[in-house]
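Late entry, written up from scratch paper. The run itself happened at the end of the previous shift, but nothing got recorded in the book at the time, so transcribing now.
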Amino acid sequence: MNKLTKAVAISMTIWFLIYFIILKYSPEWATLKASVKPDDSPPWYFIIQDLNTGISSVIGLVISLIGLFIFHKKIGPLSIFLVYITFLFYGPHIGDTIVILKNTSEVFDPALAISEWKSYQEYFNNAWRSYVYYLYLFVITLSYIYFLRKKQRS
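Output as recorded:
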C-alpha cells in the first residue's frame, strides 16, 4: 500500500470538504423551495428536498471529478479510490433526481407540477430505493475491484 503523502492527504481533505459543503449547504441555496408540509399529498416536500440534493450532487460530482482529473498524477493510485467514493456518495442522490424527473412533470413550476406519487409511502417505496440502488452499489463496487486488480497486474 502506498504511503499517505501530503498531496493525498490534501486531496482527500478537499474532496470531503467539497462533499460536505455541496450536500450540507447547497440545497439551502437552491431556488426550488418546498412551500408545503411534510405530511401533504403528493409528497412535494420530500420530492423538492431530494431534487435539490440531487442537483447539488451533480455539481459536486462534476467538481470532484474535475479536481481528481487535474490532480490524479499527484494523488497516484488513490485517485481510483476517490473516484469510487465520489460515485458511491453522490450516485444515490443523483439516482433520486433521475427518478423524480422521470415521475413528475413541470417540477420546476409549482403551479403546474404533477407527481405520480400520491403519498410519501409510494415515494419512498419506489423501485430505485427498493432494489435498483443496491444494484447500483454492487456495480460500482465491482467496477472498483476490477480497476484495483487491473492496476495490480500492470
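The helical segments are 6-29, 44-75, 78-103, 120-124, 127-153.
(Scratch paper discarded after transcription.)
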